[in-house]
Design goal:
The protein has 208 residues and is mostly beta strands. 0% of the residues lie in helices and 48% in strands. The two termini are 19 Å apart.
Length: 208
C-alpha cells in the first residue's frame, strides 16, 4: 500500500450541484388560499405573493383545478432557496395576446430578463438562464390570464463538508485505472479519470 505523506488527502469538490425540478401546481397553498392582494402563501416550499399590476390588483385562486387567474395582477415567487436557476417554464392560458410576461430579478430587485406572451390561448413561457444570471425571484404578470403550472429546473448548492484534507500537498493516484468516484443525483456512480491530453472524462462504475 502506498503511503500518503500529507495530512490525509483533500476536500474534493468544495461545492457540489444537484440538479432537480420543482413543480408548482397551484393546488397546495399553506396556510390558506389567498383572497386579497398582498396575501402570501407557501407552496412546493416556496413563498408566493400576489402584487398589484399597473396599480390594479384583481385575481381568483382555484386550488381545486390548480389555476390562478389574474385580471390584472402579478404573482411573485421567491426562488433564492432553490440555488442556481437554470430554466423556468410557466404554463399559462392567455385571454389576450401580448398581455402577460414572465420577469426574473436578482437579489437587488434588478430586472434580469422579461419574456412576454406572444399568442392568445394556451402557451408555455420559458426563461433559460444564460449562465450569468443570479436569479432571486420571479414575477408572472397577467392582464387577462390563468397560470396553470410552473416548473423550475435548478441546481441545489450543497455546502462543503470536508472529510478529507491535505495540508500543502496533492492527491496522487498512480494507476490510470483509478480516480475519484462521484454519485449522480439519480444514484449512479462515475469515476473521474484523465486521458493523455489532460482531459477529464467519466466512466460508469458500481457504487461502493
Amino acid at each position: 500500500m502506498k503511503l500518503i505523506t500529507t495530512t490525509l488527502l483533500i476536500g474534493i469538490l468544495a461545492f457540489a450541484l444537484q440538479a432537480q425540478t420543482t413543480v408548482i401546481p397551484f393546488m397546495n397553498p399553506t396556510p390558506a388560499v389567498p383572497t386579497i392582494c398582498g396575501d402570501s402563501w407557501v407552496e412546493s416550499g416556496l413563498t408566493h405573493r400576489i402584487e398589484p399590476l399597473f396599480a390594479s390588483c384583481s385575481f381568483t385562486f382555484d386550488d381545486i383545478a390548480g389555476k390562478l387567474q389574474m385580471v390584472p395582477a402579478a404573482l411573485r415567487v421567491e426562488l433564492a432557496p432553490l440555488g442556481v436557476i437554470n430554466k423556468i417554464e410557466v404554463d399559462i392560458e392567455n385571454f389576450c395576446s401580448n398581455c402577460n410576461a414572465l420577469k426574473v430579478y436578482d437579489a437587488g430587485g434588478n430586472l434580469l430578463d422579461s419574456i412576454a406572451s406572444t399568442v392568445g390561448g394556451t402557451e408555455t413561457i420559458i426563461y433559460t438562464n444564460p449562465g450569468s444570471h443570479n436569479v432571486a425571484f420571479m414575477k408572472v404578470c397577467g392582464v387577462e390570464s390563468e397560470v396553470c403550472e410552473i416548473r423550475i429546473d435548478h441546481e441545489e448548492v450543497c455546502e462543503p463538508i470536508v472529510q478529507i484534507h491535505a495540508e500543502k500537498g496533492d492527491v496522487y493516484v498512480d494507476d490510470s485505472c483509478y480516480g475519484v468516484i462521484l454519485k449522480s443525483p439519480s444514484g449512479f456512480c462515475f469515476r473521474i479519470r484523465v486521458n493523455d491530453l489532460g482531459q477529464l472524462y467519466t466512466v460508469s462504475v458500481p457504487c461502493p
